[in-house]
Amino acid sequence: MNKFVYLFKEGRADMKALLGGKGANLAEMTNIGLPVPPGMTITTEACTEYYRLGRKLPEGLMDEIKRNLSVVEQQAEKKFGDLKNPLLVSVRSGAMFSMPGMMDTILNLGLNEDTVQSVAKNTGNLRFAYDAYRRFIQMFSDVVLEIPKYEFEDILHRQKDVQGVKYDQELTPESLRKIIDSYKELVQAKTSNVFPENPLDQLAMAIEAVFRSWNNDRAIVYRNLNKIDHDLGTAVNIQSMVFGNMGNDSGTGVAFTRNPSTGENLLYGEFLTNAQGEDVVAGIRTPRPIAQLNDEMPVLYTEFSRIARLLESHYKNMQDIEFTIERGRLYILQTRNGKRTAQASVRVAFEMAQEGLITKQQALLLVEPSQLDQLLHRQIDSNATLNVAAKGLPASPGAASGEVVFDADEAERMDKAGKKVLLVRTETTPDDIHGIVAAQGILTSRGGMTSHAAVVARGMGKPCVCGCEAIRIDYAKQEFNIGTIVIKKGELVSIDGSTGRVILGEVPMKDPEISKEYTSLLGWADEFKRLGIRANADTPEDAKKAREFGAIGIGLVRTEHMFMQQDRLPYVQQMILAETLEDRQKALAHLLPMQEGDFYGILQAMEGFPVTIRLLDPPLHEFLPSLEELLVETTELRITEKNPKLLEEKLMLLKKVRALHEFNPMLGHRGCRLGITFPEIYEMQMQAIFNAAARLTKEGYKVLPEVEIPLTIDVNEMKFFREKIEVIAATTMKAANVTFHYSIGTMIEMPRAALLAEELAEFCDFFSFGTNDLTQTTLGFSRDDAEGKFLPHYLERKILKENPFVAIDQKGVGKLMRIAVEGGRKVRPGLEIGICGEHGGEPSSVRFCHEIGLNFVSCSPYRVPLARLAAAQAAISDSENIGTR
Ligand code: ADP
Ligand code: MG
Ligand code: MG
């Protein structure tokens, strides 16, 4: 039989798949001697078995639990269900990947009418015992019996009114007793059953509920969002209880070993005295900063700081720690790698390496490449005058403006309707997750830096301001007020998640500044990576930006973007409309100096780094007005009869557009097929490139143009173009009396080109995979049609695991890439091979390119940093050389 239950002392940190993250870390902490209340973990395998059996607990599981429970009882010196000294436990879910607040914890399990009296006697505190009992009934009923929480809250509030008090802590034992009775009546009425009295029954029911909660709606949403496998299952932790609500020498809290927003190396968190677990995370009472614990319980504060350091150096990562103090004794209830902002992530990694805690390689592995994107998020322009109306906690950095909305469903609806919204709530719960996804930012009136809203927003890189107590929300009226200012649903408000400011109206924003930690860390990345990172850029400005972000070349200049500019389009259209070669050459003569200027600027900006220039790619009709537009215009001109000359011109255009019409433009007359039928167009572009190169060389600049032919399928195309390029290059150099290096290559973006790479390589100095077209032609569907229509279903049904336009389809497209690499290098061992297109900025695709031995990836300038880091990580993890301190 499978072993389904592990005592904490039997587990280890690397057993996350089996014990869940929480269980594995509780085990690890137990084994390094930290004060963890004793307990056991029921494995994720038990959960999958539960589902395999059609939602039934595996046979023998409860017996195994009972056997282990007796060990826990010995350690805790209490007995489960005992009348003298009863053991109470918490039942906590914990999957392999942390899913904060996604599943529910039950505290104080084991209480019933008998044991509650023993607890009262042993602690000498009837109020405490009753309070624990009523909390237990409430949590158990919510999570296990699925009776809505608010029905219990109603009873609680009514009793507070009866007694005439405001806070829970003020309730007398008599009031609590009445609440317990009413709770039980409610349960009886709702379930037609008495509230379970037998602790073992309670335990079995709770375990089942945790297993069930793996598949509740919010857990499913969270997993979809974070691409977590739905089959993993959750573990269940059963742990003896410690109490933070036993008076003012007790308390509970959450702390990060470093600041999760900025990364500053300072204990960061919050605590509440005389409170039980969930009070801090639930955001019901606003807790106090952890530093104040030093004033109140200095010895414990020092002890906690020591443990925090220890955990950080043990795990070699910033930790997020939950603790409870029971009558002056400190217990650690959880540790995990802390979620952090991109900014914090970079700073923590850099500083931990500087402190000698980890190696440079380990530091590089600590930062999630896709997180770097967040650093390029916009901030409020510091020169702007702002109408700051209130201030809350800076829970997640970045700035956001949006129309105020008060519920998650409405936020989602408005987002779908194309509006930008700001979700405003007293606090958020996991049920609001779709609203948080839809919103530009989150603003809450209650809850601290570790409240649900704060944690989730940071994970998503969304701006968030929490615990802004100055705002009063009236859900019924759909408005909130700050003092006398009233803000209604739909009005514009901005938040600054880096400072906590709440600002009326929209605000001007600007691009963020790059920190020195960031620059250094990416410098380290360059030391380890093997792939070169280039950028796609069509203008000198983009080229400069690419250099700033660390690109060592341009992997793709799309010349068609230059054709689209307003001053060029008339000549481009003239060229297309030309009936004779002569007319076409006239138009091209106008374009030549313009193109030359473009290439001059880009080659100059790249200071001798390679610049791959792709000759004209799209079908010609893209430069003409649309058929529909022309039909409307010509019809109007016909009716008004005012301008016969214009009508004639438009009719000509219409005729040409009709002639150029294609059933399948993606597979039509484009790319080098244009260059074959209208060689003069490509010749003009070649001439422009070499003129620019010659001029720059004369002026003393270093240049390295790479002429790239798109959409080839056969070696004869390459042969045709190569001859032309060589002739034009030679004559240009001769005429200008200079020499410069250049190279000639092709995009590999048709399956036939990949398959025949061996032949193509004979006439190529480089290949560059156009993975967008290669994906379209390999899968046989166009990106726009697929993403708009059927691809979402393919992903939902898991027919395809990932969107092949986001991450390279390694199985299919990747296979063609491997064939092309092998074929090309067989003929020309030194063949330079890269990839351009947005895949080049996606971490798993970068890793793949590294694996198949490409020389470079090229992506948009903003993704260059990400690609540098991803390339370094690929190199570090495949060399398995993480280095030593
Ligand atoms: P989550 O996955 O939401 O973090 P946890 O399982 O960590 O849920 O439980 C939530 C809170 O319940 C914890 O922060 C802790 O304060 C409290 N808690 C859990 N187990 C115990 C225990 N054995 N003793 C005291 N408090 C506990
Ligand atoms: Mg927790
Ligand atoms: Mg293409």
From TrEMBL:
Residues 420-500 form the PEP-utilising enzyme mobile domain. Residues 519-874 form the PEP-utilising enzyme C-terminal domain. The gene is ppdK. It holds the Pfam family PPDK_N. The keyword rRNA processing does not apply. GO terms for molecular function: pyruvate, phosphate dikinase activity. The keyword Metal-binding applies. InterPro entries: ATP_grasp_subdomain_1, PEP-util_enz_mobile_dom, PEP_util_AS, PEP_util_C, PEP_util_CS, Phosphohistidine_dom_sf, PPDK_AMP/ATP-bd, Pyruvate_phosphate_dikinase. It catalyses: pyruvate + phosphate + ATP = phosphoenolpyruvate + AMP + diphosphate + H(+). Its cofactor is Mg(2+). PANTHER family: PHOSPHOENOLPYRUVATE DIKINASE-RELATED, PYRUVATE, PHOSPHATE DIKINASE 1, CHLOROPLASTIC. It comes from Sporomusa silvacetica DSM 10669. PROSITE patterns: PEP_ENZYMES_2, PEP_ENZYMES_PHOS_SITE. Belongs to the PEP-utilizing enzyme family. Its EC number is 2.7.9.1. Residues 17-52, 57-295, 303-355 form the Pyruvate phosphate dikinase AMP/ATP-binding domain. This is Pyruvate, phosphate dikinase. Keywords: ATP-binding, Kinase, Magnesium, Metal-binding, Nucleotide-binding, Pyruvate, Transferase.
